[in-house]
Design goal:
This protein has four helices and four strands, in the order H-E-H-E-E-H-E-H. The chain has 112 residues and is α+β, with helices and mostly antiparallel strands. The protein has one domain. The longest helix has 12 residues, at 22-33. It is globular, with a radius of gyration of 13 Å.
Length: 112
């Protein structure tokens, strides 16, 4: 959401949000945000889906459709999962460009 601040690192470090596997985080992002993601190491390798001890995705509402993928990564993913990268995946399975509006990404899933 515009103007929304992510949970602080201290909040996440204290496990108030809980912990999850990579696969569970990817599923929760899909349920909340309406698009698929792949979480990767900073060097580009995929993170195993059964890797544990990641904070649970703390957001309960989707970011606004007028925000773009780059905004979502910067405002939601990176503060919550430092040390990881993420690819937003289009309905056809390819990676989505950072300038693509979230509404466009979500519409693709609805039309598929």
């Amino acid at each position: 959401m515009q103007g929304e601040s992510p949970p602080s690192r201290g909040y996440l470090r204290n496990n108030i949000v809980g912990v999850a596997t990579v696969q569970a985080v990817e599923r929760k992002i899909f349920r909340v945000e309406g698009f698929k993601v792949v979480i990767r190491h900073l060097d580009g390798r995929n993170v195993r889906g059964d890797r544990e001890h990641l904070p649970a995705y703390p957001f309960g509402r989707a970011m606004k459709n007028r925000s773009n993928v780059k905004d979502w990564k910067r405002r939601r993913f990176q503060p919550t999962y430092p040390g990881f990268e993420v690819d937003v995946i289009a309905e056809h399975g390819g990676r989505v460009h950072g300038g693509t509006l979230l509404g466009t990404v979500r519409d693709g899933y609805l039309e598929a």
